[in-house]
Amino acid sequence: MIKTIILSMCFAVCLFSLNVHAQDVRQYSEGPVTEVAYIQVEYGHFEEYIDWLNSTWKPTMEATKKAGLIIDYKVFSLTPKSPDQPNIILWITYKNMAALDKGVEQEEVAKKVIGSTEFQNKARVARSEYRKVLGTELIREIILK
Predict the structure, then answer these.
(1) DSSP 34-77
(2) What is the pTM of this model?
(3) Which one-letter DSSP state was computed for residue 24?
(4) How far apart are CA 131 and CA 36, in angstroms?
(5) At residue 38, what are phi and psi to the nearest 5 degrees?
(6) Contact, 41 vs 87, CB < 8 A?
(7) Chain-wide mean pLDDT for the chain?
(8) Taking a C-beta distance cutoff of 8 angstroms, is the pair 77, 88 a contact?
């Protein structure tokens, strides 16, 4: 009789621990990661910046996408609520955080599309006269189960 009680108690404890373990499983998975750049383009230079996006940034993103280094990219226009807010957002989506470690590969794609690193740096300086990067952030999609 005592053996039966002990065996029943052991069985109950095992069932309880299985239930607790089942509840300890995450109810989501980590999805793609998006790099968001907040850009402020000076008044009167919006079309000039859009021209650069179309002529240089977009072809670079297309080549990066074709190389499998990014999933997607987007450009958003905003109406700022105050002078210190962005009026453009650049959105680049990567498969996961590990994909962000492909900087060398991304630089090689950029060199093929745009030109040497020195050329790219000179162009960045020229663009800084009419646009300002207010900041960047990474956001990760959470996929609910």
Answers:
(1) EEEEEEEEPTT-HHHHHHHIIIIIHHHHHHHHHTTS-SEEEEEE
(2) 0.79
(3) T
(4) 16
(5) -100, 115
(6) yes
(7) 89
(8) yes
